[in-house]
Amino acid sequence: MKNSKWVSVILSVGALDAVAQVAPQDTGKISATVEVEKIEVISTRPQGIHISSDQITTMPGGFGDPLKALDALPGVVLALPSSGGPIAQPAIRGSSPGDNQYESDFLPVGYVFHREGLSVFNPELIETFDLYTSSWSGQYNDSIGGVIKTQLRDPSFEQTNLILDLSQIRSGLLIESPISENIAFYASYRESLVHHFIDDITEDEDFVFSTPPRNHDYQAKLVWDINSNNTLRLVATGAEDIARIEFKPGSREVQRNPDLASGEGFTSKYDNVGVLLENQSGLGDTILALNILDTEVDIGEGIVEQSVSQNTESLFKWKTVTDLSFGQLGLGELSWGGHYRQQSLKHTNRSRLVTCVAEFSTCQSSALFPIVEDKVDLDVTSMAVFSDWAVPLSKHWDATFTLAVSRDDFTDQTQIEPRVAASYQLAADQRLRLSAGQYHQWFRDTDLLSPVFGNPELSLSEATMAGIAYEQSLQGGWDWKLDLYYKTLKNLPIPLSLQTQNPEDVGFSDKGEGEAVGAELFINKSLVDNWYGWFSLAYTKSERKNGANDQVINYEFDIPVIANLVAKYQWNDNWHFGIKWTYRSGRRYTDIIGATPVYSDADDPANVSDEPIFYQPTYGEFNALRRSAGHRIDVRVDYYTNVFGVPVNAYLDILNLLGNERLQEEEWNADYSDFIPDYEFPDEMFPGLGVSIRF
């Protein structure tokens, strides 16, 4: 969806759902030794940040979903769409929202967030997740933004558990049980119920849902501890999202773009099945994986775009960690492995030939372009090997040397990616870290592989990153870190017309470039003395450039200042309190300074006897303006108790406590003479009550 307000409605409904369904995996009780015990809820790593989900599930504003904590971490801009479109996605350190790599349990996944904004994983199963922002392992070789790795827990070998979540807009069932002494499994399925009452929520909108928004997801895992040296895991995950709208007569969307008269809709889904074998031998700890991933995206946006993308991916992947500390040699540790991947890509498209990349230019009205058709049917094979050698260099110095080499038979390009991360121990509680490396990624948009809609001769996008960080551990569970980084991007796809300076040229070039420089301060308090929290402050400057003429282009998600404060206090065994405060600079946008009528009689533009079929807006300088800065406070209160021996968690989650409004876009009328402001959800205080019962 490129220009739809209705996605905001789904986001709103998603928030309603989230405050009514999730409980933490434990009761949050604090033992008598808590004052001397340090529990790292969130901790820094050389490559980024590691989070344990046991406590983070009740973070205010997180909707009970641990992955929602991403928007409160340094280096992350939650890229809310300026004009509808897909859900918010994390843009990391100046890269684009689509430039991330997602993995769960050593395997790729189709997507991580439903269109409503919640993750596709049952929060009861999320054990940890990691955000890698630089110098990550060579096993991750498909990202110039960042890596988000989720680890789902294993099933219980001790007891059978049944967790039933029921609310007015989502239901879910999780069952786990041992099968024998060394075999156990779990299975989770969740289904949204918003389609039962969505019409009541959208009665004041200028559209109706012809196919109400629905989604579901599932996760299953079977673990067999074969013996002390071998463990077999069978995993399956999947999700599906679907919705379609029809516009009412007089809709502003259709008045601005008649191509949308037939409505908009989408279906996105994936199914993933994998087999993993973990082995311990004299060689080290090895994990072998076979995986099949099917993904499909079906977009119907009036006559602007009618496309279906299907990708079937077969993957063999392995990783071994070998201890090189032979006697007194102390050669460190070597992680090495690789993958062999086969992809069958099928893409059909009947759409307006709009060659536009929103990062680099304003997209003109689709009605000005012809409708063309194309099919992409490709089989792509890629291979990669990597090694990460972590070795102590001296009493104070240690380093990790990474080398990743990959090749695919579509581009016939070989990517060689050296990386290094070194650290110097300044004192027992202080460390200086240095990092540098190169990265690349496969095409994110299948249209780019088409000779009609794209350019099969494009090169893969690449990035070079360098950073320096200082970190210190303090008493009482405190630690802090200051990160400075610099990133350059190249081979980004841009419209060919920007390279040739001829607006009639269609297609794409790989002359796009980017640059980001920033500083991130992160202060963390582990769970000591009954409370934990963190504060992050990030400053960044990111921009894009037309490499053909070195023209600097303002980047939409160049958001200079982002601050986050999260704190959770466990007053006693029953009452827990939390607060989250966020501040961010406004996002860049392009102003509309006028409009030109477009008439049906194209052969005689001077004939204005008929009414114009639509108005073509006149734009000011691209992304020259910036929205106002804003802040928001979310709070949460949890009450834990037992009813007839059954653990119960009742909670109050209040979003946007102060009711602050942050403008997302202007909803213009037909001739662009007036607009209605559209604010980010929620634009007023939004309280929600919830109860979770564990059987």
TrEMBL record:
Q: InterPro entries recorded for this chain? A: Beta-barrel_TonB_sf, TonB-dep_rcpt-like
Q: What is this protein called?
A: TonB-dependent receptor plug domain-containing protein
Q: How does it sit in the membrane?
A: Multi-pass membrane protein
What domain of life does the UniProt record list for this protein's source? Bacteria
**Is-annotated flag, keyword Transmembrane?**
yes
Protein location: Cell outer membrane
Q: Mind listing the UniProt keywords for this protein, alphabetically?
A: Cell outer membrane, Membrane, Receptor, Signal, Transmembrane, Transmembrane beta strand, Transport
**Principal subcellular localization:** membrane
